Amino acid sequence: MGGEERKRRRLAMTLTAVLFLGILELGEGELKGDYSKISGIIIPGFASTQLRAWSILDCPYSPLDFNPLDLVWLDTTKLLSAVNCWLKCMLLDPYNQTDHPECKSRPDSGLSAITELDPGYITGPLSSVWKEWVKWCIEFGIEANAIIAVPYDWRLPPSMLEERDLYFHKLKLTFETALKLRGGPSIVFAHSLGNNVFRYFLEWLKLEIAPKQYIQWLDDHIYAYFAVGAPLLGSTETVKALLSGNTFGLPVSEGTARLMFNSFGSSLWMMPFSKYCRADAMYLKHFSGGTRKGHQTYHCEEKEFQSNYSGFSTNIINIEIPSTRGIDAYPSVSEFAETNLSSMECGLPTQLSFSAREIADGTFFKAIEDYDSDSKRTLHQLKKSYHDDPVLNPLTPWDRPPIKNVFCIYGVDSRTEVGYYFAPSGKPYPDNWIITDIIYEIEGSLLSRSGNQVEGNPGATSGDETVPYHSLSWCKNWLGPRVNITRAPQSEHDGSDVQVELNVEHHIEDIVPNMTRSPRVKYITYYEDSESIPGKRTAVWELDKANHRNIVRSPALMRELWLQIWHDIHVDAPSHFVTKAKRGPLRDDDCYWDYGKARCAWPEYCEYRYVFGDVHLGQSCRLRSSSADTLLHYVCIHLRNYQANEVGAVSLARLFFELAIRHSGSLFLVIPGYHLVTFAIDTNSLLVRVEKAIV
């Protein structure tokens, strides 16, 4: 296609958009917002922020020393060559969370702190976190000051983040600065532990501003909250890291990893806890001063004691304890332990099982206190930083945050660890426990590491390899009594495999759609509710096979986020959520060569356009229009007070075709309560399809 033809089509698209927006402005409502006024605030997850040295540390027997601003997390070169020095810069005092006497580290700032943890030709792609996200922002023309990262020291418990770094004060100022700078509210993107941080911030904010101004502050400063991979009931992998160590792929031993992880006060922030137990909702103390008025106590529903696993699939910990010291070794579980001991011969080990509640309330750590030297430290941190926290006990279920638009997004259908069998190793701390077996949830069943079926209460599907499904899907409780469910392929599609169920009844527990699956297709399942809370929307997105650590790099997720935001800001849409009817390429990277047809796939979106340096055919397949223009393919036009039959709808579509001249792409025209008109236009013809409205 010649350059003049492309320019003409671009102009046609622009004129069409102007005409469409003009129609919108003549209606009763107004456009929902200005794209240029929105800010995006990113709260990264655990171990997803760079830490830099703030000390001078000489490392003996190594040519590499630590100087101020040197990268600590993550510098694999220094980790490999001077591991003892590196640990000094990483470890915190397990009781008061102060730095090592010889080295201290602090979180880096800005987007560079969260894009790649260990920049480099080889290590960069392996440690990439939010880099792809930033690239999407650039491709869609987002201004540099519109994306704000708020890194934090992910080693600290919540109260210490404020006490040492004034993190939550700074976060509040970040929202207020973004509003003043750009003139509109912000969209919050939080991943993994970042969701726990944001929850704590919302509770902390209640103590900072007058109660009558709290909701207004949220409405003014936060437009939407996207909770990605949120461990809403904790993660069972935390238990493994606490007892035997989890290297997370680092070249260190499990014992070293356990020693480091257990020194972090944040290690308990992601512990699993019961969905049936809550703490008193009390404002005990203001960070700027005040007195303690009471103590938070657990209150568990009757279901906690009627069920076996605190709402999880199975008991999370099964541990062998030597029984030679008798029942006095674990008085906290005396009744439970006596039952086990009565059937054991003297001198043989006793296997005890612990649920999520018994882990979160400290029962488990009291039971092994005589067999694990780290239990005293754990109990101290658990009480000081969590049970007695002056703002919030984070080890309690989270109700829907009072934000206008909440989107809960997570991966499903991956093999996820949900339970462990531990036994003494005979070695000293930190290698004193070994894992003898692991229980996995996979495709709605429980399996041991050896492949045997395990009894329990599996969910409808499995988690995201790190967080169990029961924890991720807790946010389905935020949905109302009637939910619209849509299942669509993650990849680009023409709408033929989209399934919809409207007004599905939902009663607190999990909601499972009655929909089919093609075994070779990865789907996104959308659960959407815009009616149960007036003026607020809640949605849950489940992405098949989306890994917990890599979900923020998922092209399908980023595409859906952009389309939903574009829908909200640019269009006075008749629906509360973006249509799922069709998905085409949005970026040049989404175009590829179809060898079967000897052309670029998706010819209505992509064309072959060689640029010097292309090394294969797929690289030369590019969008016919820019990425920003391509988003206009998902515009929905709402014409009020217009009624027509199918013939009239087709005529109206042809009228818009005349206005668009020869625009290449597809648009959606919605006639309220009556028809959905889809018309796709290429250089030679006009295709019009009229259906009953599904939006």
UniProtKB/TrEMBL annotation:
The keyword Signal applies. The keyword S-adenosyl-L-methionine does not apply. Residues 1-29 form the signal peptide. Pfam families: LCAT. Keywords: Signal. It comes from the Eukaryota. This is Phospholipid--sterol O-acyltransferase. It comes from Hibiscus sabdariffa (roselle).
